[in-house]
Amino acid sequence: MNVAPAVYAEFGQTLAFTERTMTALLRNHLAQRNVEPETWYALKLIAVGGSHVNRISLVRDLEGSRGLDADSTRALLARLAVEGLITGDDAVDLTEEGTAMFESLREDVLGATVDLLDQFDLRDVETTVRTLKAITRRTQEESKSAV
């Protein structure tokens, strides 16, 4: 029988606490701009997705996030459209106003991220990001193969 390294027992809880703490910091930071995290997340998904983001994929990604379900996702996208931040039916794009808001928020969020992560060795941060991406990929692959 293989004995798991002790750090394995700490991994999940540590990751959960880190996510909770980082989410609280993001929420507080966005609240200073009167922006809900769901708005930030939707704008970011659209901006990162490039032009003409498939609405079905966007909805699926949003519904998979904490705090959003089918109804709240529809309401969020409807509100963003009414506010003039997004446009499109089957394919969604940021408007000029949406792009400006996203870029402004991104600068603020990145600034807070830099302030936090600058305390750590860059190689450690790079290793952490690489490891978390690999865990995500592996988990997604295993989930798809289990279906």
Structural description of this entry:
There is one protein chain. The chain is mainly α and 147 residues long. It has a domain at 20-120: Winged helix-like DNA-binding domain superfamily/Winged helix DNA-binding domain (Arc Repressor Mutant, subunit A, Orthogonal Bundle), CATH 1.10.10.10. The chain is 73% helix and 5% strand. The chain is built from six helices and three strands. The chain has helices at 6-31, 37-49, 55-63, 70-82, 96-117, 122-146, and strands at residues 53-54, 86-87, 91-94. It has a three-stranded antiparallel beta sheet with strand order 1-3-2. A hairpin with a 3-residue loop joins strand 2 (86-87) and strand 3. The longest helix has 26 residues, at 6-31. The chain is globular and about 60 Å long. The chain starts with 5 loop residues before the first helix and ends with a helix. The model has no long low-confidence stretch (mean pLDDT 93).
Lay out the secondary structure.
Layout lengths: L5 H26 L5 H13 L3 E2 H9 L6 H13 L3 E2 L3 E4 L1 H22 L4 H25 L1
Antiparallel strand pairs: 1-3, 2-3
Helix pairs in contact: 2-5
Short description:
The chain has 147 residues and is mainly alpha-helical. Helix content is 73%, strand content 5%. Helix 2 (37-49) crosses helix 5.
